[in-house]
Structures are given as structure tokens and as C-alpha cells.
Write a structure and sequence with these properties.
- The protein is mainly α.
- It has a single domain, classed as DNA polymerase, domain 1 (Orthogonal Bundle), CATH 1.10.150.250.
- Helix content is about 65%, strand content about 0%.
- Helix 1 packs antiparallel against helix 2 and helix 1 packs parallel to helix 3.
- The radius of gyration is 13 Å and the shape is globular.
- The relative contact order is 0.15.
- The model has no long low-confidence stretch (mean pLDDT about 90).
């Protein structure tokens, strides 16, 4: 059972992650991560939210290169969640 305090903490965390997703260093990553966050953050597990937060900690230019396939994605980043993010880049950038 989820307590109201833990639900509030989850809501605050999601809000913070959405903000970080939409306010990146480059506009392309704002769009990719922001749209993913809006569509999927609420359905992620706590472990997946941890992983998403870890993905957000990477440099935008590296992330963009990995997502677009211009740079090989490191094994430690290339997870199922990362592949979901990369596959949702439906906006032509």
C-alpha cells in the first residue's frame, strides 16, 4: 500500500525529473527527453526512475549521439529503458 507521504514524494520526484527532461542544454534533448517524460514517467517503477535519473546525468551531446546512433552507446547505458527513450524520438530533429 502506498502512503500519502510516499505518493507525495513520488509526485515530487516525477515533477523534478520532468523539469530536468524539458530543461536540458540543447533543444533536441529537451524535445526527446521531455516528450518521453510526459508520456512515460508515471508508468516507470522506482528502479526505472533511478535508471532514468542516471541517464539524465549524462552530457547532452553524448546522449544525443547515442540516441541518434551517431556514437556507439556504452554498454552500461544501453538498457531496455534507454532503448525505449531512443525509440520514442518520433519528432524529426
Amino acid at each position: 500500500m502506498v502512503t500519502s507521504q510516499s505518493q507525495e514524494n513520488l509526485e515530487l520526484r516525477i515533477k523534478r525529473l520532468r523539469y530536468r527532461s524539458w530543461h536540458r542544454g540543447i533543444k533536441e534533448m529537451d524535445i526527446i527527453l521531455g516528450q518521453f517524460a510526459d508520456a512515460h514517467l508515471r508508468e516507470l517503477t522506482a528502479v526505472e526512475l533511478d535508471e532514468y535519473e542516471s541517464i539524465l546525468s549524462h552530457n547532452d551531446h553524448q546522449l544525443y549521439g547515442w540516441i541518434t546512433g551517431r556514437i556507439e552507446t556504452p554498454e552500461e547505458v544501453d538498457s531496455i529503458l534507454f532503448q525505449r527513450i531512443a525509440s520514442t524520438k518520433h519528432v524529426q530533429l
